[in-house]
Amino acid sequence: MDDDGVAPEELVRQVAEEQTETGRAALAALAAAPVADRKAATRELRELAEERPGALAPVLPALVDLLTDEERAIRLRTAKLFVAVARAEPDAAVPTVERLAERLADEEEFYYVRARSAEALGYVALEHPESVASPETLADLRVGLEFDEPEVKEKLAKALEYVALGDPDRLRHQVDRLAEHVDDDGDLVRYHLCTALVAVGCAYPERLAEATEELGARLDDPEPQVRGRAAEAIGLVAGSGAEVDVPAGTLAALVDDEPFVAERARFAHDQSSGEDSTEQSDADPDDPSSSPFGTLGAVRESTESAVDELTSPDVEGECPHCGLELPEQGPPMCPRCGAPR
Q1: Which one of 35, 83, 249, 304 is separated from 26 by 20 to 30 angstroms, measured CA to CA?
Q2: Taking Cα atoms as reference points, which of 218, 146, 149, 231 lies closest to residue 182?
């Protein structure tokens, strides 16, 4: 690096040792450093973010210019870095929301950068929905479901789910538009959108009445996590007193399904028949562990494990997204679908 800059290893050391002011100044100057130094620094900073995201939290705004770096690899590493920090320290990412939203909205941007920007916005939205859920950003998240690359749609759907979990009011007028995409080819897209609808239904169950046809179709989904969320959403609609046009036999058949599906199908069946399940009637709305379904806290608590189950490969060594057999020592992304291993 030239005499006016800081060597990449020294810059990372300053950040890692929480020399905040010094590190922030060095990071601000990084955008003008030679390409090789920018690449080296962002590589090491991303590794630091994965290991100790809190170390980068105080200096995160100083990195926003790297989101528009001329080098695609630098932009992608920086976006991944923002995801790591936003996941662990969402407060720190709030000041960067506008720049992340710009990356999401840029149709010329590399789709993986857009996907990671959406993911970072989602983590912020979970705790600070008001900072993310502007009409423009919500429109970018929702409209992208219609035409984006599968990897981008997955992150868009996840961000919408987190917006709904952060504040269901933000999406209560978008139920019909979200429901249009619950039959997407992507398993995670379907799961995240069904979960977003459940989150809205926790606060506004009557709004889900306009999506019962699409949700009813998901009761036959090949993925149990999607079937379970669809059943949970239908149970919320039924509990609101709205009409649910789902054959009782369909819900009854799911009671013998996998546990994630069965307990939610039982809930939906009881709500449809006017019965109160013991589990639900005894639930404390402020204690998510007291009920396996029907409250925002419970949905938040169960979604990470549900995604883990959904993305776990059925066969070791296969891509969990497309099923391609992967070599033990191979690239970090699936060569067929591009998803991370």
Answers
A1: 83
A2: 218
* Position 305 in a domain: yes
Q: Which domain holds residue 251?
A: 168-310
Apex 169 CA angle, 96 and 206, nearest 5: 155
- Cα separation, 247 vs 338, in Å, equals 39
Q: Is 74 exposed, middle or buried (0-12, 13-18, 19+ CB in 10 A)?
A: buried
How many CB atoms lie under 10 A from the CB of residue 331? 9
Angle at the Cα of 215 from the Cα atoms of 212 and 221, rounded to 5 degrees: 155
Q: What is the pLDDT of residues 212-260, one digit of tens each?
A: 999 999 999 999 999 999 999 999 999 888 877 776 678 888 999 999 9
Total domains, the chain: 1
Domain containing residue 302: CATH number:
1.25.10
Furthest CA-CA distance within the chain: 75
Q: Which two tokens stand for residue 256?
A: 């013998």
The residue whose two tokens read 């390409």 is 35
Whether 198 is in a domain gets the answer: yes
In a domain, 32, yes or no: no
Taking phi over 0 as left and psi of -120 to 50 as alpha, with beta for the rest, 216 belongs to alpha
